[in-house]
Amino acid sequence: MKVVTVVAPVNIAVIKYWGKRDEELILPINDSISGTLSTDHMCAKTTIQASPLFQENRFWLNGKPQDFDNPRLNNCLKEVKRRAKPSCPILNWKLSICSENNFPTAAGLASSAAGYACLVSALAQLYEIDGDISSIARRGSGSACRSVYGGWVQWVKGESPTGEDSLAVQLAPASHWPEMRVIILVVSNETKKYSSTSGMKTSVETSQLLPYRAKEIVPKQVERMKRAIADKDFEAFARITMEDSNSFHAMCLDTFPPCVYMNDISHAIVDVVHTYNQLKSSNKVSYTFDAGPNACLYLLESEVEEFLSVINYVFPPRSGSIQDEYIKGS
Ligand code: 2P0
Question: Which CATH architecture has domain 177-330?
Answer without folding.
Answer: 2-Layer Sandwich (3.30)
